Amino acid sequence: MLRPPLVNNSDPTHISLSSIEADNAYRKGIQMLTECKNPSLGDPEALKLLASAANSGHTKAREAIAMASALAWGGLQLSINKALDDFQRLASEGNPRGQLGLGLMNAAGIGVNASVPQALVYLTFAAFGGDEIAEMSMGYRYLAGIGVEPNCETALAYYRRVASRVAEQVENRVKAGAGPILMGPTVVRINLLEEREQTAGGTSGTALSNYFISDDILAYYKFVADSDNVTAQVTLGQLYYNGQHGIDLNHKLALFYFKRAAESGSSLAMAYLGEMYLVGSPDVPKDEALALSYLQRAASAGNPMALTGLGLAYLHGRAGLTPDPVKAMDYFVKAADQGWPEAQLQLGLLFMGTLGFKADYKMALKYFTLASQQGNTLAFYNLGQMHATGMGVFRSCSTATELFKNVAERGRWSQLLTSAYLEYWSGNHEVALIQYLALAELGYEVAQSNVALILEEEKFDFIPDLERYKRAFVYWKRSASQGSSTSRVKLGDYHFYGLGTEVNYDQAIQEYRIASDVLRNAQAMFNLGYMHEHGLGFKRDIHLAKRFYDMAASTSTDAQIPAALALAKLSFSFALEFFRKCPLFRNFFGSFSGLSEGAELPGVSGKMDWDFYAIPILAGLLSLLVVYLRLAR
Predict the structure, then answer these.
(1) How far apart are CA 364 and CA 357, in angstroms?
(2) Are 219 and 226 in contact (CB under 8 A)?
(3) Is residue 3 a part of any domain in this protein?
């Protein structure tokens, strides 16, 4: 991935700016980076603005440059030493973001020797200073017991503060007059190991290629839309309106395509037009009368987005309408019955007893749950509040913490997941690792799994080779503790082979059993079958081995062929075992081999492993079967 050259902050041509000029430069630079299609690539002009502001002593700009240097974010080249120096200067001034940077570097062992106690000190002070990322990291540490005793209530307090800020950012759209699109920020969580298994080798970023729309596909949509295809017109309108899937936000083009679709009778396009005119933007002047007209036309066709938009208009008295909560609820019910998550959220809020409605916590819980099932951020937040306070449900610290953690992980920092994935598939594995490491220390499970995989497969200058498997083991363990079945199997593998830890069959069995019994992982079932078959950690038992191989085959279609081969080999071993116990066979076999009475048969004593013969024979038979089936067609 090509990058702009690193900005030289010591360039004497840089002119010191006044405090107002520096602040303006910082704000403009951040805005330019925010509007980038791929913030990881950044914008050279934005970097110049930030560097100028930083050189003039602007604290926020200094923080941004330090963080960008540490993460190769915004187009800056990776510079661990520079980032470490910048963070140390900021921290010496009592700056929370500087303390956060040092905390993460000590936690992950980037630029310094890894030190959990030192990381904890820096992160604690940063969290006390109000740094929300540090608060998130501390919440995870108290939840998982990293460097501290596990404490659910403390974890809840940290996550709750971060979640409230994320929820506030989403709610600001409502206060600004925005309508039904309140799903919250899109978080792209892609597990590299699972993606590789699903794509049989993983030679390209398959998962993200489904998320980002290529130029060819975009051109095709435009071609079809120009042929008056309403679906394509609405799709293009949505892409440009939301600025998602790698498409730059462009309200002019969104308005163009929505209008064309609306002229063809699309109620969804009318609903979007209603929202655009109701909210207004630099490209689309606010027009409440026109907005109301579009919303009413779409609502009359039963469109749930328009019904929700009208409900919000009546609820808050927008577009010249007199506030009418009862009428608003009627619209929300109609939209919620169609599964529209924003309407479900609004009903949940009303049933909490707002705006004069009688509180019905059971109904509120129902609608918040329905909305959360479609990923609505505010629904997760309100569910967290209910479980944290015991409002309408039995109070549950663990449930509330997990819900607030979910909301916190939808903050703006979640964009780094997409950036790290792009860096990985662009070949910048060192940058990807560092970005994933930062996220892993914040508690993102998928980042922990990806860090472990990258450490397992590659060497890096800033990580001693002898520590790679030890560190990978730590992150597999953290990921597994958050419910990842693939990480749980990996943890068992590390105990089985002695990677990053001592060989321990009993511990491997325990990890495989959790993955098998609780998480229904076919690989874990297969591994347990293998250990039963060969007497590793168990007394050898081919009957139990067969049971686990059968379970693996029935759990996953991908496991059917390996399980079939294993079962065939097991049958071969069973036959040998049967004949070994047969006196007639033993006498016959002994007469040809010269074995004396009491001698061991090959493949039974373990001195000669029949696997070396059975597997090639079975593989050959399977190949012949495949060839035969193809010829039979």
Answers:
(1) 12
(2) no
(3) no
Strand partners, 460: 463
- For residue 294, the cross-strand partners are none
Q: How far is CA 368 from the centre of its chain?
A: 22
- 486/467 Cα distance (integer angstroms): 22
For the chain, the residue count is: 633
pLDDT tens digits for range 226-277 = 999 999 999 999 999 988 777 888 999 999 999 999 999 999 999 999 999 9
Q: Is 122 left (phi over 0), alpha (psi -120 to 50) or beta?
A: alpha
Structural domain contains residue 603 = yes
Chain segment 495-551, per-residue pLDDT in tens? 999 999 999 999 999 999 999 999 999 999 999 999 999 999 999 998 999 999 999
d(CA 54, CA 95): 14
For residue 29, CA distances in Å to 6, 26, 593 come to 15, 5, 84
Domain count, the chain: 1
List beta partners, residue 361.
none
CA gap 388, 390 in Å, rounded: 6
Span between the terminal Cα atoms of the chain, in Å = 46
Are 610 and 572 contacting, i.e. CB atoms less than 8 angstroms apart?
A: yes
- pLDDT in the model for residue 582: 67
41 pLDDT above the threshold of 80 = no
What is the rounded (10 degree) CA torsion for 26, 30, 31, 34?
Answer: 180
Range of the domain at 524: 517-633
Q: What is the largest CA-CA distance in the chain?
A: 104
In a domain, 564, yes or no: yes
